[in-house]
Amino acid sequence: MDERRRKILYRASHRGMKEADLMIGGFVAARISELDVPQLDRLESLLDELDMDIMDWVIGRKPVPEQHDHDVFHMLATFKPYDGFV
């Protein structure tokens, strides 16, 4: 994994709120290798937001701001960490 992806993974996994660490960090750990450079840019921008805001957007409590209503956010919002488990 290149340095940029390692930094993004660390940042996504050490949010400060355990639920966000699990949700966002779990998504990034599972999908970071699949993201292209523009998607990494969008992910980094999303990581600049507060944990509670991201979680509110994911669960639909608040509308997703236009600048974050993109493919990476939708991948996060629909990510199911236990897909494939019985």
The CATH superfamily is known as Flavinator of succinate dehydrogenase
Principal-axis shape equals globular
State the separation between the terminal residues, measured CA to CA.
Answer: 29 Å
Number of discrete domains: 1
CATH topology: DNA polymerase, domain 1
Q: What is the SS-derived class?
A: mainly alpha
- How confident overall, as mean pLDDT? 92
Total count of helical runs of at least 4 residues: 5
Beta strand count: 0
Topology:
Layout: H1 3-13, H2 18-31, H3 37-47, H4 51-59, H5 71-77
Helix pairs in contact: 1-2, 1-3
Protein model, in words:
With 86 residues, the chain is mainly α. The chain has one domain: Flavinator of succinate dehydrogenase (DNA polymerase, domain 1), CATH 1.10.150.250. It has 5 helices and no strands. The radius of gyration is 12 Å and the shape is globular. The model has no long low-confidence stretch (mean pLDDT 92).
